[in-house]
Design brief:
5 helices, globular, alpha+beta, 5-stranded antiparallel beta sheet
């Protein structure tokens, strides 16, 4: 059987993800499982205009492709049962893995993990937020800095069986003002690797060509200019930044 046209073939809803803040559905296009977020189901936010979240999700995918790291699963705009929205290929994560976790404060692993913060849980026990120290997660952190991700929660990182890490839920990205909120702060001050620098360069160069042309249909000119400025600033610094500004450094809830 030929593969369905993912843009025009019928999208059938099979369920709803009720924990999402915006209307989010599971569906099928032929035998391809997808996530569908209709624009009509977006919750209004004071700093992100209504109707723009789906466009930002697609823009995040395009920037991910420019990086060449496959951070964001294939994402596109199309019509659906509840109108136009964002559609993304479903990813089956490995339930035995977790890239971000809360552990007892005295049980933080000595190697392979980075501690982000420490606090008390609802029982008063001291706990630590940790994430794995991997090249896949470093690349996601670089991606988040470039797209100005305001909502990188732990559950927005999908741990795949082969060790790859996908990032999802990118509606709160590309704001022209600094909005970075993430659980991936473990590399503050570390130098960017040659691979990471090259990825930033690919995005910067793409903004003057095909990537910039595609983003112009999804983002404002000011947002694209801010994206270019973030690339240039990160490239000049050459290392992972520390939190800055008045915004909280991490999203809430963390997961």
């Amino acid at each position: 059987m030929p593969a369905p046209d993912l843009v025009t073939a019928e999208l059938t809803l099979t369920g709803r993800i009720t924990t999402a803040s915006n209307a989010t559905f599971l569906g099928n296009i032929g035998d391809v499982m997808v996530v569908y977020k209709p624009i009509a189901g977006e919750s209004p936010l004071w700093d992100f205009p209504h109707g723009a979240l789906a466009h930002r999700e697609v823009a995040a995918y395009l920037v991910s492709q420019a990086f060449g790291w496959d951070v964001v699963p294939r994402t596109w705009l199309r019509d659906g049962p509840l109108g136009e929205g964002m559609v993304q290929l479903w990813q089956e994560q490995d339930p035995a893995q977790s890239a971000v976790n809360l552990v007892a404060a005295d049980q933080v692993p000595e190697t392979g993990w980075k501690q982000v913060l420490e606090g008390r849980d609802e029982t008063g026990r001291m706990v630590a937020l940790v994430h794995e120290d991997s090249s896949a997660l470093r690349r996601m952190a670089v991606f988040d800095m470039v797209v100005n991700n305001a909502d990188r929660k732990g559950d927005h990182i999908l741990a795949m069986a082969d060790g790859h890490r996908h990032g999802v839920d990118h509606g709160l990205t590309f704001h022209r003002d600094h909005k970075l909120r993430t659980v991936l702060w473990g590399w503050i001050g570390d130098a960017l690797t040659p691979e990471e620098r090259e990825g930033i360069d690919r995005v910067s160069e793409g903004l003057h060509g095909g990537l910039g042309q595609k983003l112009a249909d999804l983002l404002s000119a000011e947002e694209i200019a801010s994206l270019a400025a973030r690339c240039a600033r990160l490239r000049r610094a050459g290392r992972f930044p520390a939190p800055s500004g008045e915004m909280p450094a991490v999203p809430w809830p963390l997961f």
